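User: Design a sequence. Structure:
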């Protein structure tokens, strides 16, 4: 699979422009993982941790007959690997990876991978559940800015709740904190607007691709965040949000 991806001149040209680093092969492999694995997939994370993203990709395609890692009980995770391969294989398509890069190139998104200066090391606490890469639209430097404060809450929030959340977010953003939320209705929208309103920085972490404004009613808000802050996702461009991904 990696030979096909690395031999795709259009894909590689897009990857070099989107990532900008020297680890192009690792960038392509990690982008492929965002296509084939759902956020929080611990089997994918363990495989990448054991073998690296490139070799793990060949395993995902069925290139190994036994698992190179163990599960939490210390047993070889052969069954977990076989089940994961069945999940991944239908998505493991060269065209899907190319579309991810071309879609990101079209909207000016970047791909950030572990080892990049902009990679938020705090994600390492997630272990095998950590993202393999992040698609970012906007100011990538905000991913490592300090301090960062996450604020989330109910979609069907009360007016009082939104007022208090907005006051907190505005105060934090005005003192230099980056306010992180999920771009949703209710509390999320209130804190994003408050941060923008005081000229502060905010990050929206989405459950779909960074080119998919969701909810649709926040299309203008998410555009403003991408211009003055950052919109981030684990799934690649073109991916529709799902209820499960919001929780992940």
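Assistant: Done.
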């Amino acid at each position: 699979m990696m030979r096909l991806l690395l031999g795709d001149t259009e894909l590689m040209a897009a990857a070099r422009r989107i990532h900008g680093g020297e680890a192009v092969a690792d960038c392509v492999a990690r982008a492929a993982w965002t296509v084939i694995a759902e956020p929080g997939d611990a089997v994918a994370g363990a495989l990448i941790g054991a073998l690296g993203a490139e070799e793990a990709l060949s395993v995902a395609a069925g290139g190994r007959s036994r698992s190179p890692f163990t599960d939490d009980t210390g047993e070889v995770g052969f069954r977990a690997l076989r089940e994961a391969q069945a999940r991944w294989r239908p998505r493991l398509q060269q065209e899907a990876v190319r579309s991810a890069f071309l879609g990101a190139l079209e909207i000016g998104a970047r791909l950030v991978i572990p080892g990049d200066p902009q990679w938020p090391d705090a994600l390492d606490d997630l272990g095998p559940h950590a993202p393999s890469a992040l698609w970012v639209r906007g100011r990538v430097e905000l991913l490592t800015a300090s301090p960062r404060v996450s604020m989330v809450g109910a979609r069907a929030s009360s007016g009082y709740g939104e007022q208090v959340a907005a006051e907190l977010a505005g105060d934090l953003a005005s003192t230099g904190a980056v306010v992180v939320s999920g771009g949703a209705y209710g509390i999320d929208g209130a804190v994003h607007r408050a941060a923008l309103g005081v000229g502060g920085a905010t990050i929206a972490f989405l459950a779909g691709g960074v080119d998919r404004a969701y909810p649709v009613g926040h299309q203008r808000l998410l555009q403003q965040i991408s211009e003055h802050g950052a919109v981030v996702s684990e799934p690649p461009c073109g991916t529709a949000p799902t209820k499960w991904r919001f929780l992940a």
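The chain has eleven helices and six strands. Residues 72-76 have pLDDT under 50 and may be disordered.
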